Amino acid sequence: MPVSERQLAAFAAKHAGQIPFDTSPRHLAGGGDARHVTHGLAAAGWKAVSDPLSAEIVLRSPDLRHHLKFDPQSTTSAWWWLQAEHTDTERGWHAEFGELLPAEFLAGLTDALISPAPASHPEPLTVLRAAGWQVGPDDAAVSPDGMCHAEQLSHRDAPAYWRVETCEPGYGTPMGPRIWHAYFDANTPEHLVTAFVTALADPAPLQRAMYDRTAHYSAVQVPSPLTPQQTVDAHTTRIDSLRSHARAARRQATKPATTPATTSAARPTVRR
Fold first, then answer.
1. Where are the alpha helices (DSSP H) in 74-226?
2. What pLDDT is recorded for position 260?
3. How many domains in the chain?
């Protein structure tokens, strides 16, 4: 299910009629446009397997191992679920995300999922510390405004998992009511968690329209220097890049293996 010109035109039409506002801190920007996620996966060859007349969207990867579910009618606190099935060599894993999680954070993770895994990557807490988050002795990181918390937790001998939460100010307690959450089980590849927190901790504001719902009244919005067309162009450029990378990966996967010439065949016989 590649992203069609009609779908890109619909994205452009929606954003062309909006006045963009720089919204910060980004963890309070609100959900934004889910197509940041779905268009990226579609460009990489993921296909919709859900009922097209349903509000629920389910996308499945070309290798059938991964699937993403978006359900805006969910009766739980999660609207997004990302799951990987077990294989002979890799464990399965899953992650979930709340309603008001900015779509750009999940897009950072899914872009990393559909790209080759890096040979090395910084640890999530290293990324947050470098971005000015306060990291305590318990390895829990807190955003500069104190409303977003990220930590790796374990219970008894169970493997550690990651949890990120944005909450109301506690007013005498560490945290008040939860605004949105992200949960990564213990088998989630760490480079995907790193990709998520990299998008989370980026100091740049997110673009939201004048009347878009933010996650909290304390979010600061100022007129953006970006034009609506620049927002659309950035989205299109990203989708084109993901599509090109996916095509290159498929070509590499189907490229016939070459057998190098043996040393003895390449070297002439030496007479003594």
1. 103-113, 124-130, 190-201
2. 54
3. 1
